[in-house]
Amino acid sequence: MLKKSIFAATFTAALAFSHPAVATIVLVETNMGDFEINLFDQTTPKTVANFLTYVRDGSYNNVLLHRSVKDFVIQGGGFRYSGNNTNPFTAVTPRGPVDNEPKLSNVRGTVAMAKVANSPNSATIQWFVNLENNASNLDKQNSGFTVFGTVQGTGMSILDSIEDLYVPATGKFAGVPLRSYSATDLANNVAVTASNLVTIERISIINDSPTTAANLNPVPNTLAGSSDSSGSGSSAPTLLLALAALAFWRRRKV
């Protein structure tokens, strides 16, 4: 009996180790403040599993929030600062793409996966936070963008403060939110340093219950199947979002 008990305990422990708990809440620590994301494990399981794989292996440690568009989105997850302003961005190597799960609406405070234009199932590592209600564009464009979580509590105040930062329109850091940096600095060719960038220091699991989103009431996406859910879309900001991964990859190689 003792041997059977020991075997059972060992087997149970091994099973638990090989199947880690599904996280529902993660903490995003940045040099502008921290915010929590409640993940929709039950609604978008493939996307959540994909996101958590990057969380667990440290892929999101010291990555940038590399794109900010006023009243639209803040995007990150795919690049680190190289320290060389000639080629300032180093891409984080992504895994394979994840299937699109456009079940929920891109309203303010939701977190969704970025992807390539005209390719609904191309999301890999980059994600964005909706700063406003972007449902009319993103719920149908490119077959819909997968919302897999929502910023909770007072977390949007951190994102709003990042949104208020200066964002150059030209140069190597075009589109990138910059701390303690201004248009005058850009005009005077003041060098951007690591301290000027908004960095995600780490993302960690703080609640591994798969049901903490049960009391939330996310808005369903009712537009993903509409006839104009093409890859190009008609909104300039939407198209930029879809092309963001390629644009920054090209910029890195210039």
From TrEMBL:
Q: What is its EC number?
A: 5.2.1.8
Signal sequence region: 1-23
Q: Which Pfam families match?
A: Pro_isomerase
Keywords (alphabetical) are:
Isomerase, Rotamase, Signal
- SUPFAM superfamilies for the chain: Cyclophilin-like
Task: Note the coiled coil stretches, chain numbering.
Answer: none
Q: Which domain of life is it from?
A: Bacteria
Task: Identify which top EC class this enzyme belongs to.
Answer: isomerase
- Domain PPIase cyclophilin-type, by residue range, is 22-188
Sample GO molecular function, one term: peptidyl-prolyl cis-trans isomerase activity
Catalytic activity of the protein:
[protein]-peptidylproline (omega=180) = [protein]-peptidylproline (omega=0)
Which family does the record assign? Belongs to the cyclophilin-type PPIase family.
Biological function: PPIases accelerate the folding of proteins. It catalyzes the cis-trans isomerization of proline imidic peptide bonds in oligopeptides.
Q: What is this protein called?
A: Peptidyl-prolyl cis-trans isomerase
Q: Supply the source organism for this entry.
A: Rheinheimera mesophila
Taxonomic lineage from the root? Bacteria, Pseudomonadati, Pseudomonadota, Gammaproteobacteria, Chromatiales
